Every structure is written in C-alpha cells, then in structure tokens.
C-alpha cells in the first residue's frame, strides 16, 4: 500500500474517530426540499446518520427516482415548479405535515431564498443552511461583493446597484469595455448570466437575464460586471459552525464550461504553487468570517495571470461537492446536518488553525491525490447544439470499480422530464495523480451506457483527452470558442451510435466471422429512429390544442423552414405573420430543461406562416415558422 493511500486512510479513520467521540443528538426527520441526484445524496446521508428522510414531489415527477430512496414521500400538488419546489410556504407546510424537525434544501430551487429560512424558523423547523440573514447578505451578489471588498479580497469591476434599464448596460460597456456580463443578483449555477457583446444587444440580454433569474430563483434582479475573456473558474469549499470556527476544506477548478454551465470539475486546483493555494484558501475563510457564515458554502473566484478575483458566494452545497469529499474523506452533507444540529467542527486545515485553544480531538484535514467529476447531462452535444433530450431511459448501466463514484438521479425505466434541470448523473474518479484520475474516469465513462436519450458522455470523454485539459491550459472558453465538435463521436439514440452518410442514417453493430467480432455499419430508416427514440410524445399548447407536428425532412433548419431542435415551451415569439425579417434575426426562444434556446432565421424574407404561439409546448422537429426568401 502506498504512503499516500495509507495517509488518506489514517486521516479518514481519525475523522471518524472524532465523529464517534463528539456526536450529539441529531434530528429525527429531515424533509428534503429537492429532487434528482441531490435528493438521493441527502437521503443516503440521513440513512447513514440514522435519521428518517421525507421526500417531496410534484405532479410532474411523481415517479421520480429520488422517492425510492427516501423513507417517506409527500405530494406538493401542482405540476408547476413555481407552485411546488419554488414555493416556500408549500415546503414548510409539507414539513409540518410530515413531522420533520429539519429541512435540507439541496442546491437550486429555494436553497438560496431567505424566505424559506424565515418561515422555517417561525415554525420551529431547522433549515440545514446558513441563517436567512446570511443568505440574504451573501445570496445577493451585490452585497456579497461589498463584503468581499471589506474583507480585502479583490473583485472584478462591476456595479454596486441593480441594473434598471438597458441604458445602464450601454453606459457600463462604454466605460469599462465590452463585453459586459449581466448577472442575476440571486441564485447561481450560471443561470441568469447573459453576456452582451455590444450596445445593440443590451436590451435583449437584460430581458433574457431577468427571465432566467425569475424562472430559476423567483427573483429577477440583475447587476453588471466586466466580462473577463478567458479566465479560469476556481472555488473554495467552506464549512463553518455555530461556535465561530471556519475551515476552507479544499479548492476546486471548474473551468470547463459551456454557456456558463459547468461540464467538468476537479479537486484540488491543478499546477498552482502552494503559496497561491494558501492565499486562495485563506481569502475564502476570511470572507466567510466577515459574513458570519454557518454551514457549507462555496466561494467562487476567477483566476487569471496568477491572480484571483471574488466572483460570488453560493450559500448552499455545490453540485461538484463529491470531488472534495473524495480528496478529503469528509462527508459534506453529513457535515451540514451535524453543524445544523449544533456540533463543533471536528477538524481544521493543515498549516492553519482557527481555534485559539486546540482540542486534542481536532484533526487536520488535507487534500490527498486528485479527483475529477464529469457531469452527464441529457443533452445532445453533436455539432455544438446541446439540444435537451428528455424522454424514457430504456437502459442505464453505471460504472463500478476502484475509486469510482456515481451520483445518479435517474435509472433504467425512469423518464427524464423537460421541466427540470438536464443533469442525469455525476461520474467521479480519484487517483494519486491528476493523470491517474483522468484515465480512471475515462475507463469509467467507457463502461457507462445510457439508452433512450442523448447524453454528453462522449463529450466528456473527448474533453478528458483534449490537449488543453491534459496540458492544464484550458479556460472557461475552451469548449465555447476553441472546441472542435467533429471530435465527438456520433450521437447516441437508443444506445447505439448513429451517424449520417449521404443523407442516410446508419448504425454500428457487431458481427462475428470466423470466430472474431467486427464492427459494421447498416442503414436505418429515419422514421424508425424517431419512433424508437421516444420523440413522439404527447403535449398540448397553452390553448389546450395539440401542437403543430409538421416536420421538416430533418431536424436541421433548411431554407426558410424553421423547426424546433428540441422538445420544450415557446416562451417568446419575436416575429409576426407577414413581417419582413433579416437573416439572423431572432424568431423565437424555446425553454427546455430550464435553459433558453434562441432560434434565428436562416434567410432574409417574409414570415408566411407561424405554427406556434408564446406559451405553447412543442415536440422535437415541430415546424415553428416558414420564411419566404
């Protein structure tokens, strides 16, 4: 056994020994106010702490996988997210009905809404999160910037007040330079962050940022920041207890992104000096102290030319928390629960002591080895479209093996709905070195098989082999600006690779000849593919009528026919019948899996036919409009 692994195991044993010595009475039942993989993760932590868990669901996800992991399940009623997962009164009322003495909000939804904490406190229910006043302070990126400035931490140039009109964006861009980032003041995860590259985009981008923020977090306030061209995105994981102890548990790099959505994360930040790492971790702790922080939180920063800048603080658990758990041996979800129940932190950071007097039971936490996480989303990355891919998962095989972890939210025969986030699963791997972790994750992804929907698995494999990633020269713009999508293998439908040759769809199959297997290609009928992929779903328009289902010959926009590349909802129709429009003009915006997808006219001409209206639900391939050149 290597010295590194021995040290890791000894460290984990010491942490568990401290846990056994200091454990106090925890909650009897926790209501998990979330769904998907994070709800399953929290339910597992509760089970290991001998705490009962209560799950919740809406009419839109009554058969969701997370309900198979909780001890109890309670309906939130409506199909609409705003009336269920985004309704604090409904969540607290359900917790009271369930007899829960605590609520864990997970991430997203109400996790950074102070109203949930206020209502919970008024009803003598503990929210496993920071105090609502802290969420209000740090949940707003504007006030969080103010705290960072007071703590002496550098920030990206930006405004200190909410933007009121598109004129504010133009004035800011003229002063600090273009592009300009319009960012939702509340929430996180890249939602509500839109970039204006010039004054002509100011009004449209502001409207979009406000829509995304309101849809995801219930608040549409936004502010402005100078948009850094190609930075690295780094972050610090914080844990703080109610006794004044704050520890920066570890650091992560989350630079591989697309449309500000993280695709891959790793811990710790690779190839930086220990002096720089110490500065990053210390700044994270200092900010948390100034905020009077409690619980788990993540301080996000931008890193460029060996300098880091405060970006925002997420007052919740992060999607990418597993990789920090893998390199430290600390269960962050259990830590949240234990801190909320009143426990002191049972560890401290190497070369840094927060306590004035040290208890002999306090252990030193270090980061051992390297861990990488690939987010597997229900999206089709072919050609860079990233079209959402809801539908029935006909088969799901997740990888196993040494030092591999999978946090999945969907399993075989589950349905990936279009109303929620597209995250299917997180596949993580640990290694003594970064390259060992990278190769192990590649092996794990090779073993993974999902049938019935498209996924980003193949994209993850290509990114792990990409020279920029292996050389550690990647930035937040590597995927968006510098990535060759032809490197991705053919998309997957029904679990078999699909390609297109001379207009005909083909698939790869294995055949045996003289005792040896060979891969060959056969042609497939396109209608059979559409039927097998489950795209023929039943949806209705806002008026109650079935949507237009006339399709173009392919899902690509050809000539003046504009077809939807995805199932979703038309949230904005930007042209009228008979209107003369220019090539590249915005026709409509389709929302799918909580992301906005604009469709533009491929030609100049006149809108001769419109087949949808704002609020209509549509299926993949439905004709949106016809433009006569």
What does this structure look like?
This protein folds into six domains: 155 residues, ATP-grasp fold, B domain (D-amino Acid Aminotransferase, Chain A, domain 1, 2-Layer Sandwich); 106 residues, Rossmann fold (3-Layer(aba) Sandwich); 70 residues, 2-Layer Sandwich (Dna Ligase, domain 1); 119 residues, D-amino Acid Aminotransferase, Chain A, domain 1 (2-Layer Sandwich); 29 residues, no CATH class; 68 residues, OB fold (Dihydrolipoamide Acetyltransferase, E2P), CATH 2.40.50.100. The strands form ten sheets. Strands 13-12-9-10-11-16-23-21 form an eight-stranded antiparallel sheet, sandwiched between helices. Strands 3-2-1-4-5 form a five-stranded parallel sheet, with helices on both faces. It is built from 16 helices and 36 strands. It is α+β, with helices and mostly antiparallel strands and 629 residues long. Strand 1, helix 2 and strand 2 form a beta-alpha-beta unit. Helix 7 packs across helix 8. The chain is 27% helix and 30% strand. About 9% of the residues have low confidence.
């Amino acid at each position: 056994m290597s010295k590194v692994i021995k040290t890791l195991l000894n460290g984990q044993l010491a942490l568990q020994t401290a846990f056994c010595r200091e454990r106090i009475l925890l909650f009897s039942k926790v209501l998990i106010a979330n769904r998907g993989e994070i709800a399953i993760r929290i339910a597992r932590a509760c089970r290991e702490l001998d705490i009962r868990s209560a799950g919740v669901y809406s009419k839109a996800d009554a058969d969701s996988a997370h309900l198979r992991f909780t001890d109890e399940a309670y309906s939130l009623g409506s199909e609409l997210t705003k009336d269920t997962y985004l309704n604090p009164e409904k969540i607290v009322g359900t917790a009271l009905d369930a007899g829960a003495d605590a609520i864990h909000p997970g991430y997203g939804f109400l996790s950074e809404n102070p109203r949930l904490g206020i209502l919970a406190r008024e009803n003598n229910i503990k929210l496993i999160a920071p105090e609502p006043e802290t969420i209000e302070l740090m949940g707003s990126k504007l006030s969080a910037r103010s705290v960072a400035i007071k703590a002496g931490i550098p920030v990206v140039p930006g405004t200190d007040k909410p933007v009121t009109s598109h004129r504010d964006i133009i004035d800011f861009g003229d002063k600090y330079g273009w592009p300009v980032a319009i960012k939702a003041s509340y929430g996180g995860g890249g939602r509500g962050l839109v970039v204006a590259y010039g004054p002509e985009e100011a009004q449209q981008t502001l409207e979009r940022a406000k829509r995304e923020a309101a849809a995801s977090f219930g608040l549409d306030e936004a502010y402005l920041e100078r948009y850094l061209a190609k930075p690295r995105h780094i972050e610090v994981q914080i844990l703080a207890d109610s006794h004044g102890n704050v520890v920066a548990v570890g650091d992560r790099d989350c630079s591989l992104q697309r449309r500000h959505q993280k695709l891959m994360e790793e811990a710790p930040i690779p190839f930086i000096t220990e002096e720089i790492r110490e500065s990053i971790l210390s700044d994270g702790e200092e900010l948390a102290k100034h905020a009077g922080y409690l619980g788990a939180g993540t301080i996000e920063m931008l890193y460029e030319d060996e300098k880091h800048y405060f970006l925002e603080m997420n007052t919740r658990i992060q999607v990418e928390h597993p990789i920090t758990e893998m390199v430290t041996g600390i269960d962050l979800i259990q830590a949240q629960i234990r801190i909320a129940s009143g426990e002191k932190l049972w560890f401290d950071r190497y070369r840094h002591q927060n306590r004035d007097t040290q208890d002999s039971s306090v252990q030193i936490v270090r980061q051992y080895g390297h861990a990488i996480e690939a987010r597997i989303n229900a999206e089709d990355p072919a050609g860079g479209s990233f079209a959402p891919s809801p539908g029935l998962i006909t088969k799901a095989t997740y990888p196993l093996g040494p030092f591999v972890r999978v946090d999945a939210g969907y399993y075989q025969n589950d349905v990936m709905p279009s109303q929620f986030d597209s995250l299917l699963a997180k596949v993580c791997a640990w290694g003594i070195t970064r390259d060992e972790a990278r190769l192990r994750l590649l092996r794990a992804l090779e073993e993974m098989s999902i049938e019935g929907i498209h996924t980003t698995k193949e994209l993850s494999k290509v990114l792990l082999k990409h020279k920029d990633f292996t050389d550690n020269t990647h930035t937040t713009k590597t995927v968006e600006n510098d990535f060759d999508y032809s490197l991705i293998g053919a998309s997957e439908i029904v679990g078999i690779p699909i390609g297109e040759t001379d207009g005909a769809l083909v698939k790869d199959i294995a055949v045996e000849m003289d005792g040896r297997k060979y891969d060959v290609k056969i042609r497939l009928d396109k209608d059979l593919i559409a039927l097998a992929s489950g795209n023929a779903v039943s949806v209705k328009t806002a008026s109650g009528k079935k949507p237009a289902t006339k399709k173009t010959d392919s899902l690509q926009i050809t000539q003046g026919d504009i077809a939807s590349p995805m199932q979703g909802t038309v949230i904005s129709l930007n042209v009228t019948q008979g209107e003369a429009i220019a090539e590249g003009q915005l026709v409509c915006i389709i929302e799918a899996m909580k992301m906005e997808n604009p469709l533009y006219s491929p030609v100049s001409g006149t809108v001769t036919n419109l087949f949808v209206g704002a609020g209509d639900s549509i299926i993949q391939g439905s004709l949106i409009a016809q433009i006569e050149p």
